[in-house]
Design goal:
CATH superfamily: Rieske [2Fe-2S] iron-sulphur domain
CATH class: Mainly Beta
Radius of gyration: 13 Å
Order of helices and strands: EEEEEEEEEEE
CATH topology: Rieske Iron-sulfur Protein
Shape: globular
Strand content: over 45%
Number of domains: 1
Helix content: under 10%
Bound molecules: FE2/S2 (inorganic) cluster
Distance between the termini: 10 Å
CATH architecture: 3-layer Sandwich
């Protein structure tokens, strides 16, 4: 079994406020969402097609896919409206020393 590890993906101060960015690390394409003073992370590829959610539109805790406008809750990856039906993988995030760390299993 592979050990989970915390991966440093960004400085908190480098995240655009109330917006989303894409981060690629080996084997993972991750969307990082800044919502108020909280940070969330999900896989970056929509479960409906080959669109990157970091190119989509974030409103509150909802990310809208740029391709067919499906929406997900960024807090847990839950699909919120058609055409998306499958949840996104979500990642646990913690902030330490001004850095954003994502737990990769
Ligand atoms: S590819 Fe995202 S809703 Fe279709």
């Amino acid at each position: 079994m592979t050990q989970a590890q915390w991966v440093d993906v960004s400085a908190v101060d480098d995240l655009p406020a109330d917006d989303v960015i894409g981060i690629e690390i080996p084997g993972h394409d991750i969307a990082i969402y800044s919502v108020g003073d909280r940070v969330y992370a999900t896989e970056n590829i929509c479960t409906h097609g080959q669109a990157r959610l970091s190119d989509g539109f974030l409103e509150g805790c909802e990310i809208e896919c740029p391709l067919h406008q499906g929406k997900f809750d960024v807090r847990d990856g839950k699909p919120l409206c058609e055409p998306v039906t499958e949840p996104l993988r979500s990642y646990t995030v913690k902030i330490e020393g001004g850095r954003v760390l994502v737990r990769i299993a």
